[in-house]
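pasting for ref
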Amino acid sequence: MLSSLKRRCARRRDGQLVLVTGAASGLGLELTTLFLKAGATVVLTDLHAPDALPEPCAAVISRAGGRASYRQLDVTSDADWAAAADAVRDGEYGERVLDVLVSNAGIAVGGRIEHTSMETWQKALDINLLGGVRAARSFVPLLRDGGQLVFTASAAGLVSSPGMTTYNATKAATVALAETLSAELSHRRIAVTAICPQFFQSGLKDSLVSDDAVATKMADALLTKTWLTAAGIARRAMLGIDTRRLVVAPDGIALVSWYSKRFTRPGYLAVTRMIGRGVAKQG
């Protein structure tokens, strides 16, 4: 039944132009691969210099036969976003409009409120939230009517686990951004999707920012001791993107946690408070 559902949901994207941020590794690279398999032309963007791409990313571009190109882009840079938009507007990638924008770049942030510096808060907000804001501001005018805008949020944007104050706040704000843009852009039939996975195996651990030793240990465990993979999350997320869903919880843990908060709130609050007390006992 699942394979039948996948066949029904899968969309061909021949002739579509897709731009993905944070595309050099992890979920961004897996989503890029799926868009390419569906026939799209993809612009991969990330912080790496073009001559210093990770081998898996370079291999994906090489195999794409001209349907993939790379652009260095810092999601916190207004100038980089303006230049990327100008490149599309000038037809550098063959199209002067964009069909799908995937705002995927982000960092992991651990820390309880009293242990997290304002500098860490600002960095997390600038990348995890304002990176998506800049993406939308730059490319919504260039999105084709009927196109799609995708944000990588997190299950942390739907449920709020203790010890992750900054990360929870940035991802919850990203979900709110997606929901708001879904309403604002509905007159153009632009679908907006927020992908909200539980922690999975990816390069996110390398981006971890934390001022709190206890939270660092907890985040390290969440990011490494999991059976979920970027490839699996990408496949399930793509089902939601193809069906133009607003919020996609692409794994069982994220879905159960979200539904628990929505439908059994007293129990959900009891569990999170119990976790909070456990975190506090660690120092």
